[in-house]
Amino acid sequence: MKAEYEDSIIYLLGIMVAVLPLVHTLGVAIEISPDTTEYYNYVDGLKDGAIVYVELYTGIRGWFEQGQSDVAVLKHIINKIHAGDVRGVVIGTTSPEGPVVLPFSLKVMAGANVWDELEYGTQFVWLGWIPGFETAQASMAQDFRGTVPTDKFGTPIDDLSLLDGITKMGDFDMVIVSLYGGQDAYQRQWTRNPSAGRNYIFMFDCGISHRTAAMSFYPEQIQAFMTPVRQTSEYEKLLGYKGLATSLTEAQLALQFFGIGLIIVATGIYWYRRLSGGEAR
Amino acid sequence: MMLPLAELTYSQMESLFYSLIILSCWSWLYKGDNPLYKIAVNITLGLALSVGFKASLDTIISKSSPILTGNYGALIALVLGLMTWLRFSSATRELSYWPLAVVAGAGTAIGVKGAIGPMILAQTRTVSWHGANMLANMNEFLIWLAAITTILYFIFTIKRESYGGVLGGLSRIGFAFMAVGFGAYFGSMFLGWLTNVTGLGSSLVKYPGYFVTAIAIVLVVVDVLRGGAK
């Protein structure tokens, strides 16, 4: 084999190893961590017609990483709506990418045929993009109706019964922020900022890189957080289905084994060549 | 097997187009700057720009409409927004800095107000080294040590060469903590990127995306046989 093709062949093998679990899940035993159980229990514990606000700050380029958490958690919430424990879910985004990302997640969820069964206005509301980012978040905390007078489709929120009585963020029973990237404005405005009048459960689905930032707010300010892929695959297991997060976890695992295998093989070849007197390249 | 284009649903056509865009972008890895890559990049940028423009336009229209019902606060925002366009003329450019100053000032004030409670006071309050859980105590001690030594590293009022002794040693510990922190952060970022790349690959191996993959493989093989690559 020509030396210049070695890298290409290794990359090709790596891609094949990663893709295999995407075609068919391998069935790797996934152990459920306490963090995931904690998160699941908070959502599962919602009752008495609770109203949940979900903030989608998932970027387009990070959908495969982060979007699976959105799908899993929304599925769980929708199940709770059907069970009568949750009155409804309000979805909004202070990211201009949010309205592009939600259809992706809905498309994945449509497979379970749960989303279409909800009644708009009474069981779920889509607020669309709320411009202004941190200024908007601070404003929503104090004056929700003034900041978001209409939903995504231009309907006044006064006409949406799910939002009756919601005047500030503190009126929601649970706020979930799905956050891809390193923004910490949500922690600033919706955790202990006195203006928020907070009495809700505050949880984070955060991108892998945001976990370090979220940890310093845990557990006193953020009740639970979930990172994508591995932890989401655990969540999928708790919900009883194998989604894309499970496949991606297996793909990562397979790639890690592939990497370790490469190191072992390369080291073996190196020493074999060296000990046999050849060129140890 | 032929691809039954006429029988594809809208969603499948979407997946097919999606796979085509992905492979066209990745073609840069094999062939460098090539027509397929340029087409994909231009489509992506054009679509992103148009989506952003449409979203902004919708927002301006929906947020400005309250003016018609007597909400004159929105009128101030609209005027400030329009003022940003004054930068297109050198004679009025100075005026375009006013709305930026308002946005930056308001943003900073709101950020600082929100930061004091959750990001400063709450962080100093949570540290305890003498709880029941020894492991948690150790963690809290490490967090405290990392915070103090990292801050020491960034003391600029004393020249680093003159640190010496205890201060120098502690700042080096801070440096080590930062290195560990940045390493862990990079590792996490890398895993995230890897996940996104792997996720993108999922549409390339499923129907109907694998037709595009098959064509790409054939093209690469032909190119390699003809002398290949860049």
Automatic annotation (TrEMBL), chain A:
<feature type="transmembrane region" description="Helical">
    <location>
        <begin position="9"/>
        <end position="30"/>
    </location>
</feature>
<keyword id="KW-1133">Transmembrane helix</keyword>
<keyword id="KW-0812">Transmembrane</keyword>
<feature type="transmembrane region" description="Helical">
    <location>
        <begin position="253"/>
        <end position="272"/>
    </location>
</feature>
<keyword id="KW-0472">Membrane</keyword>
<protein>
    <submittedName>
        <fullName>Uncharacterized protein</fullName>
    </submittedName>
</protein>
Automatic annotation (TrEMBL), chain B:
<protein>
    <submittedName>
        <fullName>Uncharacterized protein</fullName>
    </submittedName>
</protein>
<feature type="transmembrane region" description="Helical">
    <location>
        <begin position="207"/>
        <end position="225"/>
    </location>
</feature>
<keyword id="KW-0472">Membrane</keyword>
<feature type="transmembrane region" description="Helical">
    <location>
        <begin position="12"/>
        <end position="29"/>
    </location>
</feature>
<keyword id="KW-0812">Transmembrane</keyword>
<keyword id="KW-1133">Transmembrane helix</keyword>
<feature type="transmembrane region" description="Helical">
    <location>
        <begin position="36"/>
        <end position="55"/>
    </location>
</feature>
<feature type="transmembrane region" description="Helical">
    <location>
        <begin position="141"/>
        <end position="158"/>
    </location>
</feature>
<feature type="transmembrane region" description="Helical">
    <location>
        <begin position="170"/>
        <end position="195"/>
    </location>
</feature>
<feature type="transmembrane region" description="Helical">
    <location>
        <begin position="67"/>
        <end position="86"/>
    </location>
</feature>
<feature type="transmembrane region" description="Helical">
    <location>
        <begin position="98"/>
        <end position="121"/>
    </location>
</feature>
